[in-house]
UniProtKB/TrEMBL annotation:
Membrane topology of the entry: Multi-pass membrane protein
MF term (GO), any: transmembrane transporter activity
GO annotation, cellular component aspect: plasma membrane
Residue ranges crossing the lipid bilayer per the database entry: 12-32, 44-62, 83-104, 124-141
Function: Part of the tripartite ATP-independent periplasmic (TRAP) transport system.
Protein name, as recorded: TRAP transporter small permease protein
Stretches assigned to the Tripartite ATP-independent periplasmic transporters DctQ component domain: 22-151
Keywords on record: Cell inner membrane, Cell membrane, Membrane, Transmembrane, Transmembrane helix, Transport
Originating organism: Halomonas sp. RT37
GO biological process per UniProt: C4-dicarboxylate transport
Length: 158
């Protein structure tokens, strides 16, 4: 059976980088031709960079490509390794759970307050909703990666 490979996050990251590239290219061409540029592009670019960061981190998490020091993992006996993987997984779940919870809370508050973005005047929650969604996906990927490591399906690339 083929393991899930974070297709949703890969697609979002690809779209984000393509849109950032297109926005930047159009902005440069318009600036070259007219001497001015689109001011609102910064708002979209920042939003897309945040989306790209979370989506890319989720893909890295799922494919075991996050930076970690494997020296201790390789030195431990099997029981110690399992306990370390469980500890690492629980720490990751705690952090991602907090990000998801407080990101959702912040998004809900922005929705209730009807805050608008400074550049385009769009509802601010349109940008913020991606924080709890993508960190929630990272939470899922953390669970998958930890279980896979506990089953011996992922090893350090030493």
């Amino acid at each position: 059976m083929k393991r899930p490979d974070a297709r949703i996050e890969r697609t979002l990251a690809t779209l984000a980088i393509l849109i950032i590239g297109a926005i930047s290219l159009v902005n440069v061409v318009v600036r070259y031709i007219t001497g001015g540029s689109f001011a609102f592009t910064e708002e979209f670019s920042v939003f897309l960079l945040v989306m790209l960061t979370f989506a890319g981190a989720s893909v890295a998490l799922r494919s075991h490509r996050h930076i970690r020091i494997g020296l201790l993992e390789r030195a431990l006996p099997p029981l110690g390794y399992r306990l370390l993987v469980i500890f690492q997984g629980l720490c990751g779940l705690l952090v991602l759970g907090l990000i998801t919870w407080f990101g959702a809370l912040m998004t809900w508050q922005e929705y209730q307050w009807q805050s608008l973005s400074p550049g385009l005047g769009l509802p601010q929650w349109w940008y913020l909703i991606w924080l709890p969604l993508l960190s929630g996906l990272m939470f899922l990927r953390q669970c998958q990666a930890s279980l896979e490591r506990l089953r011996g399906g992922a090893h350090d690339d030493a």
